[in-house]
Design goal:
Shape: globular
Bound molecules: zinc ion
Strand order of the largest sheet: 1-10-7-6-5-4-3-2
Order of helices and strands: HEHEHEHEHEHEHHEEEHEHHH
Helix content: 25-40%
Largest sheet: 8 strands, parallel
Length: 375
């Protein structure tokens, strides 16, 4: 995955001694660590929650300002450098300023993407230990920042089996959150392109991971570019329906609050993770039009991790995705609902669709999540 390039200047006045990590966290997070209270409880359903992965160059609170200037209503950041083991801890001022800025501009939710170096599924004990330690830091920072979600990649099981990888990952997550309370943060395990020994290339693996984490607040994040590269043709109407059916039958659509909304620079089924500007890759404009307007996805949080290669790329991608979003549900009834259901034609174009005798759980879940009513 390649969101906006990371450009933070890491402040390194502190010696990074892993032994002192816990103590340093305690020092640096003066906000009550065990208060699960969110500054912005509840997300207004009337507003479309869409945003960008935003650079934290300078400070974390500046990322929120950037997001707001770019027209985001939600956003994603790294809470430290995503490609270094050394972690930078945000200052109390930075945290307070981020929280008040989010509250003022109703920037919800805040999604944090974990460090790329982590491999919580690793069969190498040393790499796993470092990963658990670093992930603990991710959880503590996410909680201190008041983030709603913390996205992590499931990791690679090289040297073991996929099943073993799933168990190792679940054990690592349990270990990390034992000493780092989630305090209102929900973990999101992200699907991947399924390259080599990387977990998460199919939804059944994600379901299995969640299955081993009962009692922990954990759900999934689905990346459209990863779906496409993993071989799910979400560019076509049929492919999107089939992806949603498969997702609902495994993880369950209700357990996917966030969609990473990226076009794919790599071909269908290539198992290569290369993000593209919205509309310019394999999924294309029409593909995204269907994705952002699909009744089963309409109230999800859409986060773009599109490339930032030229000045204004972020603004252009935000503009494109907003252009594709229909104000109200105009499309009659999508095939996901049609297929196994007897559905009447919509009679009013008020953003609600009238549906009768829904028979599939997917359809029910989709409707429930969309607050569509049986009239
Ligand atoms: Zn990711
Ligand atoms: Zn990716």
């Amino acid at each position: 995955m390649k969101p906006a390039p990371f450009r933070m200047n890491v402040v390194s006045e502190e010696k990074n001694d892993p032994e002192n990590d816990r103590a340093r966290h305690a020092e640096n997070f003066p906000l009550p660590a065990r208060t699960p209270k969110r500054d912005n409880p509840g997300i207004s359903p009337s507003k479309w929650r869409v945003g960008l992965h935003t650079s934290i160059a300078g400070s974390l609170d500046q990322a929120a300002e950037r997001a707001q200037r770019l027209g985001c209503t939600a956003f994603q950041i790294f809470s430290t450098s995503p490609r270094m083991w050394k972690q930078r801890e945000p200052s109390a001022d930075e945290i307070a300023s981020l929280r008040s800025f989010r509250q003022k501009y109703d920037l919800n939710p805040l999604v944090i993407h974990a460090n790329y170096l982590l491999n919580l599924a690793s069969s190498d004990p040393e790499l796993r230990r470092r990963s658990v330690e670093a992930f603990r830091g991710e959880v503590l920072r996410a909680a201190a920042l008041g983030a709603e979600y913390l996205v992590l990649h499931p990791g690679s099981y090289r040297g073991a089996s996929a099943g073993q990888g799933v168990r190792t990952l679940a054990a690592s997550i349990r270990e990390a959150v034992q000493e780092a309370p989630l305090d209102g943060v929900t973990l999101l395990v992200e699907n991947t392109c399924g390259q080599g020994n990387i977990l998460g290339g199919n939804f059944a693996e994600l379901r299995d991971i969640l299955g081993l984490l009962e009692g922990i607040s954990v759900r999934c994040c689905v990346d459209t570019a990863h779906c496409f590269a993993a071989g799910m043709d979400v560019a076509s109407e049929e492919g999107l329906e089939s992806m949603l059916e498969s997702l609902d039958a495994t993880v369950g659509l209700g357990r996917v609050p966030v969609i990473h909304t990226n076009d794919s620079r790599s071909p269908l089924g290539s198992h290569r993770d290369r993000h593209e500007h919205i509309g310019k890759g394999g999924i294309g404009r029409e593909g995204f039009r269907r994705i952002v307007n699909h009744p089963a996805l309409r109230d999800k949080v859409f986060i773009l991790e599109t490339p930032l290669e030229a000045e204004g790329d972020d603004r252009r991608n935000m503009k494109t995705i907003r252009t594709l979003r229909e104000e109200k549900l105009r499309i009659a009834v999508p095939r996901l609902l049609k297929k196994n259901s007897r559905i009447t034609q919509p009679v009013r174009m008020t953003g609600r669709v009238c549906v009768s005798e829904l028979q599939t759980s997917a359809a029910k879940a989709a409707l429930k999540s969309q607050h569509l009513r049986h009239d």
